[in-house]
Design brief:
- This protein is α/β, with parallel strands linked by helices.
- It has two domains: about 220 residues, Rossmann fold; about 35 residues, no CATH class.
- The chain is built from nine helices and seven strands; from the N terminus they run E-H-E-H-E-H-E-H-H-E-H-E-H-H-H-E.
- It has a seven-stranded parallel sheet with strand order 3-2-1-4-5-6-7, with helices on both faces.
- Strand 2, helix 2 and strand 3 form a beta-alpha-beta unit.
- The chain starts with 7 loop residues before the first strand and ends in an 8-residue tail after the last strand.
- It binds nicotinamide-adenine-dinucleotide.
Length: about 270
Amino acid sequence: MPRLSGKVAIVTGAGRLGNIGVAICRSFLAEGARAVVATDFRTDSSDEIETLIAADGHAGAFRLVRHDVTSEADWQQVAKAAVDEFGQLDVLVNNAGISVHGGIGSTSLDDLHKVMAVNHDGLFLGIKTCAPYLASAVERFGGGGSIINNLSMASYMPNAANIGYHVSKAAGRMLTVCAALEYGAQKIRVNSVHPGVTMTPLIREGLEDYVRSGMWGSVDEAESALAAMNPLGIASQPEDTAHAFVYLASDEARFVTGASICHDGAIGLRY
Ligand SMILES: NC(=O)c1ccc[n+]([C@@H]2O[C@H](COP(=O)([O-])OP(=O)(O)OC[C@H]3O[C@@H](n4cnc5c(N)ncnc54)[C@H](O)[C@@H]3O)[C@@H](O)[C@H]2O)c1
């Protein structure tokens, strides 16, 4: 039987072709999810994403909706619409995230608030809004609903040049464990995934900047250099990362809550 048979999921930050959110949606549908509601505040690649999902054969089970994760009203609308259309909600993936570069001296309070609003408050609102719907998944699957926060190795690794991102991702980890304690009695599991560098368009664009600055000769060269930083010597693709989400969403993980999967090729061990 497919691992996510019959489940209905919301996946945030899934509005950009090639990113981790889209890979999670495709993996969930490939594993038998009954429906996946993908959300994002950007809609410029919606048509391409919908075409891709249709080519996978899952058009009828996929919705892509505009949603700002920092808006409580948007969350209420998205969660209610998912349950109204599909009758249930079993999995919430808080994947949307942003980064603002700079240390304390060069980061404005406004920029810090922006990154905290998406990477922390967005998770808080998602959990708060969706938990009552997820709690009703208990009866159907015997293991309750599942919330999975896409964080980063930044939750654990300090970086003085990128404090907003690292502090917000560390806060996301504490939110994850507190939520695991609070919602355990309702059989809602709350876990986090901590990717290392994953080759999404966002990362490729960053590498192009380094290529322009002369640090590397090409994006491929830069990718190889990044791969060499972990003991496995490979660069993770979004599809690799998505496997961790499938596991945590599935009933195979029914005894797993408050856990943190470091999906980083052990790059964290080098620091
Ligand atoms: N790619 C990596 O190397 C890597 C490593 C560690 C962690 N992560 C995390 O994985 C997640 C996905 O990253 P990605 O690499 O796929 O990047 P990405 O930028 O393609 O994906 C993030 C998505 O979140 C959306 N988003 C941003 N603010 C939003 C808001 N207010 N409301 C709704 N959507 C919003 C963006 O439009 C984007 O589509 C992020 O949380 C990121 O921090 C990525």
